[in-house]
């Protein structure tokens, strides 16, 4: 009986090992599948602007002389626009793959007021052209938060850029305030950041998909810009900050995206640093 039990124990251990190996293989297969799906999507997305650029340049090259100067200009403008689209796509794909490469990003105390100011400066002209008011509502005395400044700039740029892209009139407001009272003596303080627009809104069915790569909601027919990668970049960066974005939206009324970030405490830093260094 002792021998039989020991044989059974060994068999059980082996079976456990096999189950774990099968799990690993399945996980690896899923990752590979996701990777090749991504590559196939990227190739598909790259092909469209490339095809358009080639067609317009080829037509100009072959038949340019027969075209009116106005038409020639129109063709060149389209080729230029498509080149911009291609650049945006390549930049987004590079950003995403850098974020997923496992590279370590340095965290520090981040002044959100400064980050919002810096982002809004780049969008001011665009908002003015569209007749949209950009409003900044940062709570006075907002504490610094714990994060990576450059990555958070990118989150703000993507969300504010989207808000402007999908809004034709009204306001885009950026708010930052403490959840509960901002008492620096307490450890678990959070700052909430909101980007609210009075734009097209997102259909309820589309809302769950917006953070997926290359996802574009129905409302996208209203704009040619965009790669469908902006919000997956946002999701990835916020995950690195141990948080995620949520949204509330109503078609025809507007959309609000928000996320919470940890307030910076010197004690938290020491804690995190020693954890990182381990
Ligand atoms: P894109 O480059 O197309 O903007 P994103 O990943 O940033 O890609 O967004 C995905 C889709 O979510 C957009 O194509 C759009 O349909 C929808 N979306 C994102 N932000 C907004 C917004 N503020 N208002 C309305 N729709 C939005």
Automatic annotation (TrEMBL):
Ranges for domain Histidine kinase: 41-265
UniProt-annotated location(s): Membrane
Top-level lineage group: Bacteria
Full protein name: histidine kinase
Organism: Romeriopsis navalis LEGE 11480
């Amino acid at each position: 009986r002792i021998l039989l039990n020991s044989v059974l124990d060994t068999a059980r251990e082996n079976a456990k090992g096999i189950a774990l190996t099968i799990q690993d293989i399945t996980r690896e297969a899923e990752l590979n599948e996701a990777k090749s799906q991504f590559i196939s999507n990227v190739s598909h997305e790259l092909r469209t602007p490339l095809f358009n650029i080639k067609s317009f340049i080829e037509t100009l090259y072959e038949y340019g002389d027969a075209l009116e100067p106005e038409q020639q200009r129109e063709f060149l403008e389209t080729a230029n626009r498509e080149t911009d689209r291609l650049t945006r796509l390549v930049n987004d794909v590079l950003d995403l793959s850098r974020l997923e490469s496992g590279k370590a990003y340095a965290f520090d105390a981040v002044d959100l007021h400064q980050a919002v100011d810096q982002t809004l400066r780049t969008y001011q002209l665009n908002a003015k052209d569209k007749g949209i008011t950009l409003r900044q509502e940062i709570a006075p005395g907002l504490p610094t938060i714990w994060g990576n400044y450059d990555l958070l700039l990118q989150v703000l740029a993507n969300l504010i850029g989207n808000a402007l892209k999908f809004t034709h009139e009204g306001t885009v407001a950026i708010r930052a305030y403490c959840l509960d009272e901002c008492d620096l003596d307490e450890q678990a303080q959070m700052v909430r950041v909101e980007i609210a627009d009075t734009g097209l809104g997102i259909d309820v069915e589309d809302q769950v998909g917006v953070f997926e790569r290359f996802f574009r909601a129905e409302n996208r027919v209203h704009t040619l810009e965009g790669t469908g990668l902006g919000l997956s970049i946002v999701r990835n960066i916020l995950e690195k900050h141990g948080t995620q974005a949520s949204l509330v939206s109503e078609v025809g009324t507007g959309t609000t995206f928000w996320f919470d970030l940890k307030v910076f405490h010197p004690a938290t830093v020491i804690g995190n640093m020693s954890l990182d260094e381990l």
